[in-house]
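Trying the structure run again after the queue cleared.
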Amino acid sequence: MIRAFTKMHGLGNDFVVVEAATDAALPSAAAWRRLADRHTGIGFDQALVILPPRRDGTDAYWRIFNADGGEVEQCGNGARCVAEWLRLAGRTDEAARPLRLESAGGVIAARFDAPGVVSIDMGVPRFTDPAEHSLDLEGETIRFTQVSMGNPHIVLRVPSIDAAPVATLGPALECHPMFPQRTNVGFLEVMGRDAGRLRVHERGAGETLACGTGACAAMAVGRRAGLFDETVTLHLRGGALTLRWPGGDAPLWMTGPATVAFRGEIEPSDLFGD
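Done. Tokens:
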């Protein structure tokens, strides 16, 4: 039974991290929603459940549940926090090989650049065909690029993220019929060839202070459009991430912090009572 938890965050994108021997009796969607409530629960953008590895050569399998109780495939900031959790728990042996983590979005590798600073191989960005799309929404034509980082993203270029209608356009696009599985929505402001600013409305969580896969998606979109160099710093509301992508079929690497906020225990009735 899950009881102990670690509260962690990557640039303010916050998580409850728990370990389980099996996923046969994980909390229901309603229970995750109760725990995600910032007034009556613990509060989090996502819950990360660390499970035993399911394939040779990996160190853990992990599942990701949004604050609305829905499960998603991948989470970049969450991956850094899972890697750091495993390091602090003494479950890593980087001298042998990089850490390898599997989720529904696939297997990714992690390395530790310093205590609490993690680099993640987020894999190759996958663009739709065609990547460029537009749709009409309330009389306005919205243009965006669609890309997957193991989970779905669309990226809109905006002149200023401060003026971008994230609170209204983000939810409208997330749930648009064009995206039957819903999508994450990034608003990218290009500052130069090596820097940009980004806000992300996350699927099932709303706008967060940072989104790792969203930053990877935005960097890939800017790089593909010829706007970014191979290494870019993206400034999110919670801080900065460094992204490196040569392009093509090379993997995209993301570097940033993973921080422990506190540890605690969850009452079993909060986990399993509906």
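The chain has a mean pLDDT of 94. Worth checking whether this holds up in the mutant runs.
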